[in-house]
Amino acid sequence: METYPKGTQIIQILDKEVYLLTEKAVFLPQSRSLLIADPHFGKAAHFRKAGIPVTEKVHIHDFLKIQKLIESLQPTDVYFLGDLFHSDWNESWNDLEEFACYFPGCQFHLIKGNHDILPKALYRSEIWRVHPESLIIENYILTHEPMESVSEGFFNFCGHIHPGISLFGTAKQRLTLPCYFICNNQMILPAFGRFTGLFRMKCEKTARVYAVTDKKVIPVNFMQ
After folding, report:
1. Confidence (pTM)
2. DSSP class of residue 181?
3. Is residue 77 a part of any domain in this protein?
4. Domain membership flag for residue 210
5. Sequence-distant (≥ 6) Cβ neighbours of residue 218 within 8 angstroms
6. Exposed, middle or buried by CB within 10 Å (0-12, 13-18, 19+), for 134?
7. Residues 14-30 pLDDT 10s
8. Residues 77-111 pLDDT 10s
9. Rounded to whole angstroms, what are the CA distances from 179 to 90, 93, 135, 185, 223?
10. Which 3 state secondary structure label does DSSP give 179?
11. Which of 21, 77, 131, 132 registers the highest number of CB atoms within 10 A of its CB?
12. 203: in domain
């Protein structure tokens, strides 16, 4: 029987189990694939170069989350759905590749996003498999930006938007949380990186939303 981290929400997509994790990542147990969108590694150093004092600890926390997921779920492949690295090269890229080397039994993939502008030569071939636009695994299409249309029988996992959902209390309190946003045959993953903002999603009747808290992933069953 498959085990999964505490707080995980398990849903069915194309008649297969999909794990929505509190770490803001998706696990596909049938193919032992871990999906991560928009970590934006290197963003802290990018801001420091511009004179804004941001600590590198924001990325260390994300490294530890990935380590925990790899150790607990034992994926064979990790797919970054774009915006792996925030912008131009800085010293944080060396930290990222050194971290990836600790998991030789795991293949790392990058579906390139709009922030992935590093020269191709920088991606060490023994670590990275780089896919320019999209990749199909099983009947899942992995992209960075949401696809405008998805063929019948397929499902699109993507990122780019950094989706969030606002929950309102009886005393007019408002709490905006990252979320998994599903509409028709597409899921937009929450941004994995801590150093990212949120875009508040508008919920149509066909949308399914799962808010992410530190302890569990919660289905949102009412209109916002």
Report:
1. 0.89
2. E
3. yes
4. no
5. 9, 210, 211, 212
6. middle
7. 999 999 999 999 999 99
8. 999 999 887 566 567 778 888 899 999 999 999 99
9. 30, 28, 23, 17, 14
10. strand
11. 21
12. no
- Residue owning tokens 């045959």: 185
138 in any annotated domain = yes
Q: How far apart are CA 46 and CA 86, in angstroms?
A: 8
CB 143 within 8 A of CB 134: yes
Strands 207-212 and 217-220: antiparallel
Place of tokens 């934006």: 40
Cβ neighbours around 190 below 10 Å, total: 29
List pLDDT tens digits, range 39-55.
988 654 444 444 434 44
78: containing domain? 9-162+185-198
Q: Quick count: other Cβ atoms within 10 Å of Cβ 201?
A: 19
